[in-house]
Amino acid sequence: MDMDEKVLIVEGTSDRKRVKQVLNEPVEIICTYGTLSDEKLETLILPIEDKDVYILVDADDAGESLRKQLKSELPNATHLYTQKGYGQVETTPMDYLTEVLRGHFLVKQC
């Protein structure tokens, strides 16, 4: 297995679209569509346990509870944050999103 494989976990498809506009490398982006049942969590976690996992969820209550859930299942994941003021990943300004992802991923120059 290639240990350099990166996986980015976001909440929804609009988040995925937004992040893809910034990324400049192929990254597997997984959408959780909100909080996960144990069953769904297991299905999500198993294939990515050995990969380089990053978590970028909304700065709201739903995002926080999802983050807690993922933290216990993927203790080695890197947590990336948008600002509370922006609220959601999909409404985070591109330049800020680029800053958040830079250093972990190859990003496009704004």
From TrEMBL:
Boundaries of every Toprim domain copy: 5-89
InterPro entries (UniProt xref): TOPRIM_dom (IPR006171)
Q: What is the recorded name of this protein?
A: Toprim domain-containing protein
- SUPFAM superfamilies in the cross-refs: Toprim domain
**Which Gene Ontology BP annotations are present?**
rRNA processing
| Segments passing through the bilayer | none
Give the highest taxon in the source lineage: Bacteria
- Species of provenance: Anaerobacillus alkalilacustris
What molecular function does GO assign, one term?
A: ribonuclease M5 activity
A Pfam family of this chain: Toprim
Q: Supply the Gene3D superfamilies for this chain.
A: 3.40.1360.10
